[in-house]
Design a protein that fits this description.
Residues 132-305 form the D-isomer specific 2-hydroxyacid dehydrogenase NAD-binding domain. With 360 residues, the protein is an alpha/beta fold. It has eleven helices and 13 strands. Strand 3 (69-72), helix 3 (80-83) and strand 4 (92-95) form a beta-alpha-beta unit.
Length: 360
C-alpha cells in the first residue's frame, strides 16, 4: 500500500499511485514546501533529491496545492487551516515541534496526509528547565535578584527540594524526562498520564487523569507537561488549584490553553499558591500590556524551555532522517495518531509502556 493509499511511505510509491488517479507527479522530484520566514539549516543536503520551496504565510495556500510534503518549520503558525487545499495537498506533514495541536484541524485530519513530529529533541532540555524553575522558586532566586538590583543585603533561609512531592501531568517522553530529573534531585515524583498503568517499569505506578484531583492535596509541586487535546484543554482551573495544598507551586511547560490563566492568577493573589511559572501562554507573544507580567510570584518565560544552543540543527537532522525514510519508502518515525493527537509510544524491549507525547 502506498502513501497515496494512507500508508507511511515515500515519493516512489506515491508516483506509482499517480497512475491510479491520485494526482502525484511521476517525473519530477518531490516538492517539499517549508513553512517559515527563516531558512532551516542543513536542508541543502537533500537539494538533489527534492525540490525545496520555502514560503511565508501569505503564499502558503498556493504552495500547498502542489506540495508532496510539508515541513512546518514555523510551528507556532495559525495559517494552516485556512491555507489547506480542499483537494489534494501534501501526503506527509512534519512539524518542528513535539506538540501537534495546531495541525489537528478538520481538513488535515480528514486527509490522507501522515503527520510526524519532532519527538526526541526536546525532552532533556525541558526537564532541565523545569528543574531550574523548581530550584529557582525554592531558593528564591527572583527575590535575590530583586534585592541585588536595590543593593539590599538581606539574609534569608530557603527551602529544600529533596523530600518534597511533585505531581507531573503528562506521561509522554517529556513528562517522563521531567519526572526522572526531579527524582534525581530527591523529589518524590508521581506521574499522571492519559490512562493509568499499575506496573510501569520505570516509575512503578502511573496514575490516570481521573486520579489527579486526589493527588493534589499532598503535592508541593504541580508540573504540566501534557499535550493539548480536547481532554486536557482548560484542565488546570480553579477547581484543581483549590485542591492544592496552600503554599504549593505550579509549572506549565505543556501548552498555554491547558491553564485557565485567570484562575491561576486568582490562586496566586489569594495565597493558595506560593508561586508559578509559565513557559507557555494562551497568547504568544505575550503583549507588553498584559497584566500577567506583574502578577506577584509568577515567572514568565517566552516559550523557551526546549530551546538550547544547536536545537535548530537537531530539528533539521531529525527531519532529514525522516525524509530519508520517506524517500526510500520506509516507515516514518514519530507518526502522530490523528485520533489521539499525539505519538503513541509502543512497548519497547526495556518495558517502556504506551504513553502519550508531550508538547513543545
Amino acid at each position: 500500500m502506498s502513501i497515496g493509499s494512507k500508508d507511511r511511505h515515500g515519493p516512489d510509491q506515491a508516483r506509482i499511485a499517480a497512475t491510479e488517479g491520485l494526482g502525484m507527479r511521476t517525473t519530477e522530484l518531490p516538492l517539499v514546501v517549508v513553512l517559515g520566514e527563516q531558512e532551516p539549516p542543513l536542508l541543502d543536503r537533500i537539494k538533489d533529491r527534492a525540490r525545496l520551496r520555502r514560503v511565508g504565510e501569505p503564499h502558503l495556500a498556493d504552495a500547498l496545492r502542489a506540495a508532496d510534503a510539508l515541513l512546518v518549520w514555523d510551528f507556532l503558525t495559525d495559517a494552516l487551516p485556512a491555507a489547506w487545499p480542499e483537494e489534494g495537498g501534501p501526503r506527509w506533514v512534519h512539524t518542528a515541534s513535539a506538540g501537534v495541536d495546531k495541525l489537528l484541524f478538520p481538513a488535515l485530519l480528514r486527509s490522507d496526509a501522515v503527520i510526524t513530529n519532532s519527538r526526541g529533541v526536546f525532552e532533556e532540555p525541558i526537564a532541565e528547565y523545569v528543574a531550574g524553575l523548581v530550584l529557582a522558586m525554592a531558593k528564591d532566586l527572583p527575590g535575590t535578584l530583586d534585592r541585588q538590583r536595590s543593593r539590599t543585603w538581606q539574609h534569608r533561609a530557603t527551602e529544600r527540594v529533596a523530600g518534597t512531592r511533585a505531581v507531573v501531568v503528562g506521561g509522554g517522553p517529556i513528562g517522563r524526562a521531567v519526572a526522572r530529573v526531579l527524582g534525581a534531585l530527591g523529589l518524590r515524583v508521581t506521574l499522571v498520564s492519559r490512562r493509568a498503568r499499575p506496573h510501569d517499569a520505570e516509575f512503578g505506578r502511573v496514575h490516570g487523569f481521573g486520579e489527579l484531583p486526589g493527588l493534589l492535596p499532598e503535592a508541593d509541586w504541580l508540573v504540566s507537561a501534557a499535550p493539548l487535546t480536547d481532554e486536557t484543554a482548560d484542565l488546570f482551573d480553579a477547581t484543581l488549584f483549590a485542591r492544592m495544598k496552600r503554599g504549593a507551586r505550579f509549572v506549565n511547560v505543556g501548552r498555554g490553553p491547558l491553564v485557565v490563566e485567570d484562575d491561576l492568577v486568582a490562586a496566586l493573589h489569594e495565597g493558595r499558591l506560593a508561586g508559578a511559572a509559565l513557559d507557555v501562554l494562551r497568547q504568544e507573544p505575550l503583549p507588553a500590556d498584559s497584566p500577567l507580567w506583574s502578577v506577584p510570584g509568577l515567572l514568565i518565560s517566552p516559550h523557551m524551555s526546549a530551546d538550547t544552543h544547536g536545537w535548530l540543527e537537531d530539528l533539521a537532522e531529525l527531519f532529514l532522517a525522516n525524509f530519508a525514510c520517506w524517500a526510500a519508502g520506509r516507515p516514518l518515525r514519530n507518526v502522530v495518531d490523528k485520533t489521539l493527537g499525539y505519538v503513541p509510544v509502543g512497548e519497547a524491549p526495556g518495558g517502556t509502556p504506551h504513553t502519550e507525547e508531550g508538547s513543545s
